[in-house]
TrEMBL record:
It is found in: Membrane. Belongs to the amino acid-polyamine-organocation (APC) superfamily. Spore germination protein (SGP) (TC 2.A.3.9) family. Its main location: membrane. Gene3D superfamilies: Amino acid/polyamine transporter I. The chain crosses the membrane at residues 12-30, 42-62, 83-109, 121-140, 149-172, 192-208, 220-240, 270-292, 304-322, 334-354. Pfam families: Spore_permease. This is Spore gernimation protein. Keywords: Germination, Membrane, Transmembrane, Transmembrane helix, Transport. Signal peptide: none annotated. It is a multi-pass membrane protein. NCBIfam families: 2A0309 (TIGR00912).
Amino acid sequence: MSKYAMNGITLMQYIILIHASQVGTGIFSLPRQLAETSGTDGWMTVLLAWIINCLAGWIMLLTLRKYPDFTLLDLLSHLFGKWLGKLLALPLIIYFASFGLVIMVNSMLYIKSWFLTKTPAYLVVLLFAIPSYLVVRNGLRVQARYIELVFYMTMWMPLFMLIPVGEGNTLFLLPFLKEGWLPVLQGLQKTVFAYAGFEILFIIYPFLQKKKYAIHGFLIGNTLTLLYYLFITIVCFIFYTPDGITTLNQPVLSLLKNIEFRFLERFDMIFLAIYLLVVSKAWIIYISCAVFSTAQIFKKQDHSIFSGIYFLFAVASVYVMNPTWNQSEEWTKLLSKAAFGVMYMFPVVLYIYVRGFEMLRRGKTG
C-alpha cells in the first residue's frame, strides 16, 4: 500500500489539477505576445506548444512510473543519495515557491488596478493568503476538491467571449503562414509561462490512485488547456485588427469591456472578480508543491507550519518590495527561462540518467 494512499486523488482530480496549474493570469496578455512575434498565425504556435508539452510530459511520466510511490525528493534521494538529492531538490522548491508568489503578485496588480486602487499591495496579498493557507495546509486531497469545485463553477466563463465575436472579422486570420514557419516557431518562447504547470507531475503523481491512466489523464488535462488558450487566442485575433492587438497590454480584458447588458454595464469587472478563483487554483498548486517538498526535506508529516511561513514571507516580501507591473514582467521573464529548464530539459536529462542508473544496477546484480 502506498504511503500516500490516505491522501490520494482521483483521475478526474488529477486531470483538473494539471489543467488548473497551467491556467492563470498569463492568458490576459498571451494573444498580444503571440501577435507581436507570430502575427495572426499565433494560434498555430499554441498548437505546436501543446505538442511539445505532450512529449515533455510523456517523458516525465516514463521516469515517474518506474518509481510510482516516489515524490520528487524521494526520487532524487534514491538516484543521487540523501544529501545530494536534497541539494538538487532545493532549486526546484525555490522554483515552485517563486511561481506561486509571482502568480499572486500578478493577481494583486490586476485587483489593485481595477478594484482597490488605494489599498496597499501587501493587504491585497494578505487577503489572498488567509483563505489560501486554509486550503494548502490540509493536504493535496483537500486542494484537489477545492480546485475541482472551482473548475465546475467557472466552466461557463469562456463562453461569454463569444458575444463580441459577431463584431469581428475572420479574414484577419488569413492568409495562413503568411511569413512562413519561422515566426510561428519564434513565438514558442512566449507560450512557456502560459503552459507552465505540468511539472507538478513530479509532486502529485504518487497520490494518483489509478496510475495506469496517468499518461491519459495528463494528455486530457493538457488538451483542456490547449482548447482554452486556442479559443481565447482565435477570438482576440478575429475581434482585433492584426496591428491593433499589439497595442493592447491585456487584449482579453479590453475585449471584455465591449460586453454590456442592459442591467449590467461593467461586465468586465464582474468577470475579473470571478476569474480570481480560477487564478487561485494555480498559485495554490505551486505553493503546495513547494511547502510539501520542504516538509519532506525536514522529515515532517505535517506541512501546515511551512505553509504559514510561506504566506507570511509572501506578505512581507510584497510589503518590502511593493512590486510594480514592470517588476512583475521582469520576474515573469526570469521564471519563463527557469520553466524552460524545468519542463523540457530536466525531464530529458533525468530520464537518460534513470535509464543509465537502471542499466548499471542490473549489470551489478547480474
